[in-house]
Amino acid sequence: YGNVNARAIEVASSLSVPSETVDLNWDNLGFGLVHTDYMYTMKCSLGESFTKGELVPFGNIEINPSAGVLNYGQGLFEGLKAYRKEDGNILLFRPEENAKRMMAGAERMCMPSPSVDQFLQAVKATVLANERWIPPPGKGSLYIRPLLMGSGSVLGLAPAPEYTFLVYVSPVGNYFKEGLSPINLVVETEMHRATPGGTGGVKTIGNYAAVLKAQGAAKAKGYSDVLYLDSTHKKYLEEVSSCNIFVVKGNTISTPDIKGTILPGITRKSIIDVARDQGFEVFEKPVTVDELLDADEVFCTGTAVVVSPVGSITYLGKRVTYGNTGVGLVSQQLYSGLTRLQMGLADDKMGWIVEL
Ligand code: COI
Question: Which atom of ligand 1 is nearest the CA belonging to 305?
Fold first, then answer.
């Protein structure tokens, strides 16, 4: 992707980009939007391909009230992070995986998608243009949010006539307010996130609106988030609102297999490899609630949450706790294995890191 780099640098360097790091309270970053300098946009018509995008000042966008995304939810998003290394260089983690996932989602949602090269170029250009917002090493990361939406007008139900690809960024710290402390989950037994044949396996925006009600009810009761079950048997684990789930028993780690109702997380996939590399036996298979309640340790994975240990699960009013207090050993070991790679502190044997 050498020429992608060159083009991204060219796009970003045509702007006036102040280089000194922003004066922010880096120790207080949570997961909320911080306005940055630039965003990337690119448009195309239905049936055509994206051609050329541009960086514009970050801000509101204008959209027709009858846009496909507003009326019929024709939209996708992605999430990835840029880290600042000790030597000042900027690292991206497996960005082409996000590009490919967006292409797969676009196919499901009847949208044209940027190519892998276009996606990478847009991400890199946006990161470089907002370089001063990347937290110092160890203080967090720059969260990158690519969007793809039906921005053209439709009234009758149909794919929109025009599409917009947009990338914006925000410096972030920990996703859960618990920070790295274990989170408390409740198993949702009434509402479901996804159904077989539906869109649970792609990162469409509606999947996330669909979980707000159960998530809100859980938060009101003091839980961190909700764990969803499969809608057919109400017995197998699916995922948490914003992340995938893993259960640990002895030297064995299990996570629900990808079968169309679960988001194929890039952190999920990476943790499977990191765990195997660390000597664990990892299974992607149907995981029952019983296995969950009987586990030694439970943790969640996601770009935003990274590896988040679970301290307790509540199922039908019964609460099971893990690891007494504090972070489980396996979660800690995997968190460290993954984040050392992402921050450029460990040897990148897998070839996952893209350095800007
Ligand atoms: C991510 O982990 O990047 C996501 O897209 C989840 C989102 C709900 C924050």
Answer: 2
Asked if the interface predicted TM-score (ipTM) of this complex is over 0.90, the answer is: yes
DSSP reduced 3-state for 2: helix
- Find out whether the beta carbon of 242 lies less than 6 Å from any atom of ligand 1: yes
What's the pLDDT band for 21 if we cut at 50, 70, 90?
confident
Q: What is the C-alpha to C-alpha distance for residues 334 and 86, in angstroms, rounded to an integer? A: 22
pLDDT tens digits, 286-314: 999 999 999 999 999 999 999 999 999 99
Ligand 1: distance of its center to the CA of 14 in Å? 31
Instruction: Looking at the CA of residue 203, tell me the nearest atom of ligand 1.
Output: 5
Q: What is the mean pLDDT of the chain?
A: 94
155 vs 171: CA distance, rounded Å = 37
Reduced DSSP (H G I as helix, E B as strand, rest coil) percent helix, strand, coil of the chain, to 5: 25, 30, 45
Task: Report whether 205 contacts 78 (CB < 8 A).
Answer: no
H helix intervals, 73-150: 95-108, 116-129
pLDDT of 168 higher than 90 = yes
Tell whether the model's pLDDT for residue 249 goes beyond 80: yes
Give the pLDDT band (50/70/90) at residue 129.
very high
Number of H helices and E strands in the chain, helices first, is 9, 17
Nearest atom (ligand 1) to Cα of 304: 2
Determine contact, residues 71/108, Cβ cutoff 8 Å.
no
Q: How far is CA 227 from CA 175, 213, 214, 216, 263, in A?
A: 16, 13, 10, 13, 13
Residue minimizing CA distance to atom 3 of ligand 1: 79
Distance 156 CA to ligand 1 centre (A): 31
Is 81 labeled as catalytic in the residue annotation?
Answer: no
Asked if residue 302 has its Cβ within 6 Å of ligand 1, the reply is yes
For ligand 1, say whether the CB of 303 is within 6 Å of any of its atoms.
yes
**pLDDT for position 326:** 76
Pick the range with the lowest mean pLDDT from 127-136, 172-181, 204-213, 308-317: 172-181
Beta-carbon contacts of residue 76 (< 8 Å; ≥ 6 apart)? 102, 105, 106, 109, 111, 147, 148, 149, 202, 203, 204, 205
